């Protein structure tokens, strides 16, 4: 049986506790925003990706780690709600790009704007030096999270498989 609880030597510092609370709250925010917008969690994540860049349905499938058929269903639902439109890829007419519409942008931003404003205020309260430390911590935390994404499931002794 895999070991439970923190690993030996683990120190549940205030920083690690705060990070865990942030991650837990962040997951809840996505779920609540999706529900309020009348879309699924995966549809919300798709809209978030499209708010940063235009991608196609195959890339949606890769990023969500779902089949292309499932991604097509997600895109179809977003198109039917008017949140996304399909258009031919500018360089390769055989491909399709997905474009976030104003309706899709509002579905996400309207619910998240109060959070963005509060985070902006918080960020402005830090000096450049403090922001550099926070950024270093957050980037390191992101790398630690990515280890879960790139490492196999643990063996029965609790150690990650290569």
CATH topology type of the domain at 31-112? Arc Repressor Mutant, subunit A
- For the record, the CATH architecture of the domain at 31-112 stands as Orthogonal Bundle
Class inferred from helices and paired strands: mainly alpha
General form = globular
Taking all Cα atoms into account, the compactness measure Rg is: 19 Å
Query: For the terminal residues, how far apart are their CA atoms?
Result: 19 Å
Could you tell me the mean pLDDT?
Answer: 88
For the report, how would you describe the main beta sheet? 2 strands, antiparallel
β-strand amount: 5-15%
CATH superfamily of the domain at 31-112: Winged helix-like DNA-binding domain superfamily/Winged helix DNA-binding domain
**Strand order across the largest sheet:** 1-2
Poorly predicted regions are: none
